[in-house]
Design a protein that fits this description.
Blueprint lengths: L1 H19 L1 H9 L9 H13 L4 H28 L22
Helix pairs in contact: 1-2, 1-3, 3-4
């Protein structure tokens, strides 16, 4: 329950930042290293959705579906940038595997 509350607070903070400072979120998404960690939002959304199943299954299904769609879209977008060769070689870190590999374990 504590994890769900923390997730809710962090999601609210992220949405507030997205509305009030969209340039900040865009800069994070376009950053060669930080962009990989954006994919943790849909991953944690899917994990929280699994936790909601015993209490409210329809909400869990909606959250999980949202997480899957966002994760797949973001992973496809980021991987396309890597395939085009636009990613700087010196910014290649293990974090690049987060959108395409780590989320699929969920």
């Amino acid at each position: 329950i504590l994890a769900m509350i923390i997730w809710g607070l962090l999601t609210g903070a992220f949405i507030t930042r997205l509305i009030r400072f969209p340039h900040s979120v865009l800069a994070e998404v376009r950053h060669p290293v930080l962009s990989s960690f954006v994919s943790l939002f849909p991953a944690t959304t899917m994990l929280v959705a699994i936790g909601f199943v015993p209490w409210f299954r329809p909400l869990a299904v909606c959250l999980f579906s949202f997480g899957v769609v966002v994760q797949l879209a973001y992973a496809a977008w980021q991987t396309a940038g890597l395939w085009r060769g636009s990613h700087p070689e010196e910014a290649t870190t293990p974090g690049l595997y987060l959108p395409t590999v780590a989320n699929n374990f969920i």
